């Protein structure tokens, strides 16, 4: 691995200067954005985090960027890039620093209003191979997860390229591997078996979590030509999951133990994508033009039962397969889809005027796309199949302006401090739906450098997106709590498009205050308020409480015994929705001064300071109500629909180059679910804690005989749900709560990973 960093400011005393004053040579720092950063995360802080890749690092440092912890939008060396995830797999060591831009940078660079933006400043030169092997398993046993990855990454000024591959595998977790009681209906089925089958455990034929594997390859290359730069990206992925879903009644009712085979649900997805982008100045406007093609294949096979009539066979159409040596043939519901998409995107931005308070900037984004989806559904119960082909066009755009109003040079208004305004307008048009329009604006006020207040408002007519309208149907098994019967079940969830959706309107108001009372952003204080009101519009199907089931009886399917077997979970239209939320947070950043015990912090002769970063955030839901349909009563999610009013999250990271540890957790307040006006279930407060750390072996094995391969190794350890805690569900009829693994089948997990860079 090699890197080359040249200082951007050189200050040296001049022997010819009789007054001994230094001569300072200044230039724009490599990779710096046009907008000055409000804070920076330097190499020493970057090195203190256990994150291995840039993508992981952005998630780990999100709380330093914004009190909400939302992962920010990304610039690279001061410019937007065609694929925001292009650098996610790069080692974090490729970064010189992360520059946190002010809140108004989103409008200046063409991002959606309210987004925070960071600039990834890469090292001028960097090259390495990186490989990682990790294994994760719950302490209760029963499931093992493995992940392997390898990649080559190189940076040479404006030229960079990478190629990488990943593979992961998860074993299944059976009910028999957890102390979960069998449902009464299942036990009743096994009562019909003769003595030869008396030892059969039904839990061995049903999985809580499927066995799964995935593999992917990703390659990207960026190279300059003249004033422009071109990027080519190609990616391919394949994943599959297979889950046992129990035994069919027509099998367990017969003395056929040696032929008992669990029914399975199988999901397979494959994707291939290629993109080409060109970026550079056009008439002074920094522009990015991107063309992208992607194709996705998805398959769902769900066995619904066995056909025991006739001899063993394989039906020519492939919808029935041999299940065992006893001639049992499975009846399989099969879904197939192929989706092709073409996208052409243009983003451009520039300063448009020089105002007394600074430069006014404008940005424009346009996206056009075409999608073709072919879908096939075969149901053996009816013996028929259904096929469809849909075509859709999409056009959307965003224009934004950033205007500095007051500041230095705007006397007498300079006494107000720094005031910036931003405005955005956007539209989206999808075939088969009306045009969606959105307008918004924000004011940023900093009366002093350490305080910033941002107030923003937006209004839009919400219209369904392409996926909400036309996405192919997908059926998955999902573990949920059935409030009506008071049991955990695994019904079939139907997802996909709903072409009956219509639009509505949405208004939102936000106010955010951030104060940094100490130099170096030692401590940041965040306060935020959110108020959103929707009239009509679109939402996902809420958690299936009794009130929601009563409002959407056509979306819920139960068998003759009343057991929940399927849910149509496609997007829905709502009557109205109101949410009000207050957030608060503290974040801490401290680095060891260079003049304090420097010798204790040296690695390889270089001073590597200890750093401490931490955050504490509180979220208070003031109001959360929805009227699902006109004429129905308003549902208060906080009062009787299972949503907690308060939640707290914290994170603490202590480390330096080669060594670090982190500790974090969440706390969720009490919540309840009502049925027929009375409390049916109660969630007591619950907390979860996580612990992790890493060490580079070169830190432990020092001396002249240390080998290069030892220096290149890093060991990481992560313990999720450290105290194996869970969130209880209590009810008047079952005050002891539900069994440990009904709520959380995995419980505490331990992950060990070895990373090598060379």
Would you give an account of this structure?
The protein is mainly beta. The chain has a domain of 233 residues. 8% of the residues lie in helices and 54% in strands. It has twelve helices and 45 strands. The chain has a 22-stranded antiparallel beta barrel. A hairpin with a 5-residue loop joins strand 21 and strand 22. The protein is globular and about 80 Å long. It starts with a strand and ends with a strand.
Highlighted features:
single chain; 758 residues; mainly beta; 22-stranded antiparallel beta barrel; 4-stranded mixed sheet; 12 helices; 45 strands; 8% helix; 54% strand; disordered N terminus
Short description:
The chain has 758 residues and is mainly beta. It contains twelve helices and 45 strands. It is found in: Cell outer membrane.
Structural class assignment: mainly beta
Which consecutive residue ranges, at least 5 long each, have pLDDT under 50? Answer: 1-20, 308-328
Shape: globular
* Rg: 29 Å
Q: How many angstroms does the end-to-end distance come to? A: 6 Å
Output mean pLDDT: 83
Helix proportion range: under 10%
> What fraction of the residues are assigned to beta strands by DSSP?
over 45%
Q: Count of DSSP helices?
A: 12
The total beta strand count reads 45
What's the quaternary structure here? single chain
Most strands sheet: 22 strands, antiparallel, barrel
């Amino acid at each position: 691995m090699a890197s080359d960093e040249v200082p951007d400011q050189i200050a040296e005393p001049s022997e010819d200067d009789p007054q001994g004053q230094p001569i300072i040579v200044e230039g724009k720092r490599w990779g710096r954005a046009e907008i000055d950063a409000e804070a920076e995360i330097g190499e020493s802080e970057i090195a203190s985090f256990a994150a291995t890749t840039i993508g992981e690092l952005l998630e780990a440092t999100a709380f330093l960027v914004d009190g909400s912890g939302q992962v920010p939008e990304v610039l690279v060396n001061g410019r937007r890039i065609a694929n925001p995830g292009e650098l996610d797999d790069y080692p974090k060591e490729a970064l010189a620093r992360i520059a946190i831009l002010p809140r108004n940078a989103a409008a200046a660079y063409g991002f959606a209003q309210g987004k925070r933006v960071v600039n990834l400043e890469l090292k001028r030169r960097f090259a390495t191979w990186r490989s990682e092997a990790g294994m994760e398993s719950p302490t209760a046993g029963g499931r093992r997860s493995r992940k392997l990855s390898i990649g080559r990454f190189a940076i040479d000024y404006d030229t960079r390229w990478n190629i990488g591959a990943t593979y992961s595998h998860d074993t299944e977790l059976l009910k028999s591997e957890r102390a979960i009681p069998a449902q009464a209906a299942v036990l009743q089925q096994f009562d019909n078996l003769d003595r030869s089958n008396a030892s059969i455990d039904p839990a061995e034929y049903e999985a809580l979590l499927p066995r799964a594997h995935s593999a992917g390859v990703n390659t990207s290359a960026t190279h300059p030509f003249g004033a422009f730069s071109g990027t080519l990206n190609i990616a391919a992925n394949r994943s599959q999951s297979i889950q046992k879903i129990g035994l069919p009644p027509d099998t367990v009712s017969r003395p056929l133990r040696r032929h008992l085979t669990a029914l399975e649900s199988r999901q397979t997805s494959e994707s291939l994508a290629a993109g080409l982008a060109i970026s550079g100045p056009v008439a002074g406007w920094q522009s990015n033009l991107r063309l992208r093609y992607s194709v996705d294949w998805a398959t769902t096979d769900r066995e619904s039962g066995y056909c025991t009539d006739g001899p063993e066979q394989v039906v020519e159409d492939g919808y029935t397969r041999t299940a065992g040596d006893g001639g049992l043939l499975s009846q399989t519901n099969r879904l197939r889809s192929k989706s092709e998409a073409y996208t052409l995107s243009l983003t451009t931005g520039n300063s448009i005027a020089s105002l007394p308070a600074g430069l006014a900037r404008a940005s424009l984004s346009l996206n056009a796309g075409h999608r073709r989806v072919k879908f096939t559904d075969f149901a053996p119960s009816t013996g028929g199949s259904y096929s469809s082909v849909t075509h859709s066009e999409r056009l959307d755009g965003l224009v934004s302006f950033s205007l500095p109003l007051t500041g230095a040079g705007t006397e007498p208004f300079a006494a107000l401090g720094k005031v910036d305004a931003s405005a955005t307008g956007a539209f989206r048009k999808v075939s088969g739906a009306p045009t969606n329009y959105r307008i918004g604006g924000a004011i940023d006020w900093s009366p002093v450098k350490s305080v910033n207040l941002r107030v923003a408002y937006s209004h839009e007519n919400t219209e369904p997106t392409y996926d909400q309208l036309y996405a192919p149907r997908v059926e998955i098994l999902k573990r949920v709590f059935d409030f009506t019967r008071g049991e955990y079940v695994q019904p079939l969830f139907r997802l996909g498009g709903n072409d009956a959706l219509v639009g509505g309107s949405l208004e939102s108001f936000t106010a955010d205050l951030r104060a940094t009372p100490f130099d170096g952003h030692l401590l940041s204080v965040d306060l935020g308020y959110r108020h959103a009101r929707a009239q009509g519009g679109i939402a996902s199907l809420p958690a299936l409480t009794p009130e929601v089931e009563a409002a959407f009886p056509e979306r819920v399917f139960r068998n003759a015994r009343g057991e929940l077997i399927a849910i149509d979970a496609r997007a829905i239209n709502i009557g109205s929705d109101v949410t009000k939320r207050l957030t608060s947070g503290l974040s801490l950043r401290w680095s060891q001064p260079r003049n304090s015990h420097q010798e204790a912090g040296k690695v390889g002769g270089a001073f590597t300071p200890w750093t401490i970063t931490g955050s504490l955030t509180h979220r208070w839901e003031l109001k959360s109500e929805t009227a699902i349909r006109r004429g129905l009563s308003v549902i208060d999610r906080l009062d009787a629909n299972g949503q907690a009013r308060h939640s707290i999250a914290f994170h603490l990271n202590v480390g330096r180059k080669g060594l670090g540890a982190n500790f974090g957790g969440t706390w969720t307040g009490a919540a309840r679910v009502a049925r027929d006006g009375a409390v049916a279930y109660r969630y007591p407060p619950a907390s979860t804690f996580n612990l992790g750390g890493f060490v580079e072996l070169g830190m432990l094995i020092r001396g002249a005989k240390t080998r290069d391969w030892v220096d290149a190794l890093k060991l990481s350890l992560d313990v999720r749900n450290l105290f194996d805690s869970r969130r209880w569900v209590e009810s008047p009829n079952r005050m002891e709560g539900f069994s440990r693994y009904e709520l959380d089948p995995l419980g505490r997990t331990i992950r060990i990973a070895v990373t090598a860079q060379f």
